[in-house]
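Anyone have tokens for DNA circulation N-terminal domain-containing protein? Sequence:
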Amino acid sequence: MSGALIPAGLLPAGLADLFEGLFGASWRGVSFHMPDARHEVGRRVVRIFFPGRDATAHEDLGAHDGTISVSGLILGDDYARRARAMEAAFREPGPGTLVHPWLGELEVVLARPATISFSERELRVARFEAQFEPWVERATAPLDTLGQVLAEIDSLKAEARALLRRVLAPLLLPLAAIGAVNSYANEARSLWTGLLSGGRGAGAILTLLPGTALPGLSAVGGLPIDEAYGDAVTDALQAVPDGISAAAVAGDAPAIGPAAEAASIGTVATVDPVAATDILLSALDGLGLSAANPAPGPALALVGRAQALAAAVGTATGISYETRQDAVAWRARIDGALAALAGSAASVASAASGGQTSAGPGAMWRAVTDLRAAWARDMNERIGRLPSLERIAPPRAVPLWLLAQHIAGADPGRVVSQYEDLVRRNRLRHPAILDAGVALDVLRQ
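Reply: yep, here.
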């Protein structure tokens, strides 16, 4: 244990010789010395008594990691201040870190109220007695995984807004920065216009997009430079990705509205969420081009990508996956985009603070990683309920009807749907007789 001894130079002046055998320890970061410690260990054995009998029985209920009793000393001229800090540490709720000179670093919780004592016979010394219990966090599986994804999406959007609010504060905003914001907004409009001018589902998305979304990006140059400037820029940048995501989410029109809208009451027209998600993911590279420019270019690029990716994740939750392989591919694609965004947030945070984690980009990094974890949990839950795509190669030439009946089993009602799925999935032009050795993708109905 000689390696755990506190070096003499770390003890208060005049106490090094007197307390050279003390071991260093800390509770919630408050340091103290621990000359004595003990802890309980063994088995949880319950003794059972029976009426009218002298014999007893013992029931073993498992391992027992009992209380860790600590007798601590706080030494030095500032012992009263450090005792108050220890008092505050004892009052904090939840588990904390106990650095034990013999047992190492432990996650524990205070088992019962501690006692701190002072004595006129021991100046510059405060004593305390505390009992801790090992903390074991109960793992609870999240029930509403989709709700967690949506909550983390909102959290990421909120952190993006907070970052731009901090970066675009009027008192710290030079004219060059205002020009950079206007330039980025115009580049974003050109990018979104190009993506929505062609491709699958782009026309329907453009029709359902709010009329002020794209023009709002051009209007950024006319925004007043006041306290609301950062929020106004955030709203303008976020309007297009949110509009694309909303176009792919099914919903009902309001039952109450102007008379001119009465004829349109019913289900709101939507587009394929796969097409909308593809467009949002395709915009990530273009929205990140300003990352190499001077400030506030990196923050604008980070926020623009975060807004588009948050909308893409929300839209991807509405995709109906047919097979487990489809869901796995989408999970990997979104996860890769989130990992890249987290790396960008870490780089921006480090560059903005000279190697230290900056508050704004650092908070965005945490939000992205939380969203990434929630997305993985939700997709794993969905993947487990999906059928897996199989490949079957008949050993000899057989009619497709016979293969469909073999796959569908004894239920005649499933044979027709299985046959049609085989034709569609494998694009068979002549399904009457299959050649020997031809591999087919099969999804069991």
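The two ends are 67 Å apart (CA to CA).
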